[in-house]
Amino acid sequence: MVFFEILCGIAAVLLAVYYYLTSTFDFWKSRGIRGPQPIPGFGNYKDVMLVKKHMADYLKKIYDNYKDESMIGIFTARTPVLVVKDPDLIKDILIKDFTKFADRGFPLNEKVLYA
Fold first, then answer.
1. Which first-to-last residue range defines the signal peptide (predicted)?
2. Shortest CA distance to 45 belongs to which of 33, 60, 56, 55?
3. Which of 46, 75, 94, 96 has CB 3.0 to 4.6 Å from 42, enough for a Cys bridge?
């Protein structure tokens, strides 16, 4: 009986971890934006995280695989990331709607930048 309870506890923990890792994976699909299927724990960056591919090569591959899309939705682990390809949308984001997108992206360590 104790073995069954331990087994159920382990199964519940594994299910909770799996749900936590995959709970955001419908983010782009629900918004109608196409992208590659993410992998739990890695998102779409498995080969980059395992140092099999450089980030630039991976993004170029995704860019080429979705030629007809103006935007591509990918994931870094659990975090959704939007890759914008359309020059007009890029212009709107960087100029017209800059205040809405100013603090997005990768965090920088300013001590390193201004040392």
1. none
2. 55
3. 46
Strands (E), the chain: 71-76, 79-84
Written as tens digits, the pLDDT of the chain (115 aa) is: 889 999 999 999 999 999 998 899 999 999 999 999 999 989 998 988 898 999 899 999 999 999 999 999 999 888 899 999 999 998 888 888 877 776 666 666 667 656 5
**Measured between alpha carbons, how far is 99 from 102 in angstroms, rounded to an integer?**
5
The residue among 113, 110, 94 whose CA lies nearest residue 102 is 94
Look at residues 11, 75, 73 and name the one whose alpha carbon lies nearest to residue 40.
Answer: 75
* pTM score, whole prediction: 0.74
Q: Exposure of 28 by Cβ count < 10 A (0-12 exposed, 13-18 middle, 19+ buried)? A: buried
CA distance 103 to 82: 14
- Strand, helix or coil at 104? coil
